[in-house]
Amino acid sequence: MVYPYFFVLLAAILWGMTGTAQTFLDKGVSSIAVATIRSAIGGGLLLVAVVLLRKISFRTWSWKWTILAAASIALFQGLFFTSIRLTGVAIGTVVTIGSAPMFSGMLEWLFWKTRPSKVWGIATIMTITGCMLLFINSGDRAIHLGGVGLAVCAGLSFAVYTNMSKQLMAQQEALPAVAMTFSICAVLLLPFSISSGFSWLAEMQNLWTMIFMGVMCTSIAYLLFLSGLQKISSSSAVTLSLAEPLTAAMLGVLLVGEHLSSTSWVGVAMLLGGIVVLTFTGRKNK
């Protein structure tokens, strides 16, 4: 079946809008506060829905995997948004998601004893090469090493989240899983964001930006991602997530005014090639 791959691709495209959306927020807004509100909106709305629809049982819930997934995605968001501030939309997203497939494959192999397929290896090499070519797009701009380091740590955190969610999805449905994970994520982030305050939400541009990030880039995106993750491996899902830096790069050019060199356009082609290989060849190897 192809649809799980397309679900993950659509999720990645929505995630790719996150960095660009953040540029519409006031510059003084805390990265952790953004992650907190985004998670609260994305998880809270779904939690209300699943409770009203009686699609969740707190007594039999898989708390272990949920808490681990929530902690890792909370860490991911804090690291990712901070790296974006330091490195820029394109570079921060490319380094974060570009490093995640390697980490995900390692975690899958070490902890779940599942060796990634050759198709995954070929597709991952192609997509990571594409990311590296996009990274060259920084040109003469000084690279913030601290920001790059945070982006790599964010990539590891996302790989951990994906593997934890894979275990969670073996026991729970996607809708309540996203609702619980991001609601807990918001609670975990709240103590670190209270000091900066939330008065910035009074500005309509900030509020609408956060609603978009919460609903589209969190609720819908992660529902699609977990729905696809039920049918494919964690390593394949993370590799397909490399559509995110591709989306971010395109939006960076179209909306933020960032520039892509000819080398970077080759990187775009490599990214697309890797995604096509994994989507249409990987399914034949299931």
Automatic annotation (TrEMBL):
The keyword Coiled coil does not apply. InterPro entries: EamA_dom (IPR000620), EmrE-like (IPR037185). It is a multi-pass membrane protein. Its main location: membrane. It is found in: Endomembrane system. Residues 5-135, 147-279 form the EamA domain. The keyword Transmembrane helix applies. The chain crosses the membrane at residues 31-53, 65-84, 90-112, 119-136, 142-162, 174-194, 206-225, 237-257, 263-281. One of its GO terms (cellular component) is membrane. Keywords: Membrane, Transmembrane, Transmembrane helix. It comes from the Bacteria. Belongs to the EamA transporter family. PANTHER family: ACYL-MALONYL CONDENSING ENZYME-RELATED (PTHR22911), MOBA-LIKE NTP TRANSFERASE DOMAIN-CONTAINING PROTEIN (PTHR22911:SF79). This is Putative inner membrane transporter YicL.
